[in-house]
Amino acid sequence: MDDNGLDSASRRYLRSLKQRLADLPAEASESILQDVRAHIEEATATGRSSDQVLASLGNPRELAEASRAELVLHQPARTSRLDSGTILGGTSIALAVLAAVIVSFFLRAPEGQHPDAGTEPEQAMATLLESYGPGVALLSLVPAVVLLLVHFLPRRLRRWAMLGVALALSVLVFLDIFSSGLFAVPMALTAWLAATIPYARKPVAPAGEQLSARILGSLLLIFPVIMLGTGLMLGTVGAHYIPLLLWMLFSLALAIGYALNSRAAHWTVLAYGVLILGVAVFDAGILVAAFWVGGGVALALGLHGLLRLNPRVGPTDRTKAEPV
Amino acid sequence: MNASTEKIATNLRKGVLEYCVLALLGRGEMYGLEIANELMARELSASEGSLYPLLARMKSSGIVETRWEQAAGSRSRKYYSITVQGQQQLATFETVWNEIRGQVDGLLGGHHG
């Protein structure tokens, strides 16, 4: 197609229209552009000014909107949602970066000792960075870099690379280098999810897997409550009863929601996990590892529920999606 | 035309424009500008541009088809014509239209009488 015979305003109009039609099926946008071009050519040939012709066509934005209304609404909506691989991979990268930051900058241990060895604040406490220099900060970023690199592999290789990385991270948990093993738990969990969920033969967990995942999930959610409840009865936990009680009820509700496979419960578990991870980063003191692991588990449970268990959707969720 | 007249007209035209195009093509094949001019002259369409997305959709659903013809100059023209499927749809529309028109006229007549 050539632009001969069209003035600059018409050419600009067609260029703009072409851009705005770019996301429509090629055949339709081609046909519309062809027709509009012919319309302009023919109409100006009969003596109408191009300004007048363009004005009565309507501006390119309106025309593109009309095209979308005609053509897109008659097709199933294209889903632009992120795929589970990207979500899970991205989450494990973020967790790996945060873990590196905690391990090198925030984690204070008596120099050269296990953090459990002594807790007196007077004792010389040093972060790993202070003890071993910037090299250790770089070293702690290795998992994040490896997770990132996996993303640039072709899809077929990615699956096996992700499995390898998940396995390596799990080994890292038990090697416990610089007593930082526990900090690799959340990234290892999400890496396992990233290595399995996107490649599963059935996108939604079959019945047996469903049941065990839901039972395991609610047990994990209720586990800290049971631990703390026992502590209360034995009198080892302080008497901040009311907030504790509320938290226990909340955990119980989450566990039930998870067992019932409710979408809202999965989202809440996910947010709960992010919140606990946030507490671990900013304000956990001596409990940082416990909070980090607990938050990671909740985050992984939420993600697993949303991406793999095909949760029950409330009656309101589906209404706006499809035009009639 | 005032705003409310315009609004009523726009809503009504939206539903029938497709069948007006089919009816026009039922008389014989036409190229884009011809259809646009006819619709504008009959005040069946407010914007010439909206015709082309409509034609693209009608073509993809198989009720019209196109044919290129070398016109007098160097330019070739794309002619639209109605398909058998389009004719069936037009016939269906005519039945429905007559039914609705009868009912609406009856109501309006009752209103005036």
SSE sequence of chain B, one letter per element: HEHHEEH
CATH superfamily of chain B: Winged helix-like DNA-binding domain superfamily/Winged helix DNA-binding domain
Number of domains as seen in the coordinates of chain A: 3
> Helix share of residues of chain B?
55-70%
The percentage helix of chain A is: 55-70%
What's the structural domain tally of chain B?
1
| Quaternary form | heterodimer
- In the CATH hierarchy, what is the architecture of chain B at level 2? Orthogonal Bundle
- How would you state the average pLDDT of chain B, rounded? 89
Q: In angstroms, what is the radius of gyration of chain A?
A: 29 Å
- H/E order of the elements of chain A? HHHHHEEHHHHHHHHH
Largest sheet of chain B: 3 strands, antiparallel
Main sheet attributes: strand count, strand direction, barrel closure of chain A: 2 strands, antiparallel
Uncertain segments of chain B of ≥5 residues (pLDDT<50)?
Answer: none
Task: Assign the CATH topology of chain B.
Answer: Arc Repressor Mutant, subunit A
Structure description:
By secondary structure, chain A is mainly α. Chain A folds into 3 domains: 8-71, no CATH class; 85-199, no CATH class; 206-324, no CATH class. Helix content of chain A is 68%, strand content 2%. Chain A has a two-stranded antiparallel sheet. The longest helix of chain A has 28 residues, at 207-234. Chain A is elongated, with a radius of gyration of 29 Å. Chain B has a 3-stranded antiparallel β-sheet with strand order 1-3-2. In chain B, a hairpin with a 5-residue loop joins strand 2 and strand 3. Chain B is 65% helix and 14% strand. With 113 residues, chain B is of the alpha+beta class. The longest helix of chain B has 29 residues, at 84-112. Chain B has a single domain, classed as Winged helix-like DNA-binding domain superfamily/Winged helix DNA-binding domain (Arc Repressor Mutant, subunit A, Orthogonal Bundle), CATH 1.10.10. Chain B has 4 helices and 3 strands, in the order αβααββα. At the A-B interface, helix 2 and helix 4 of A face helix 2 and helix 3 of B.
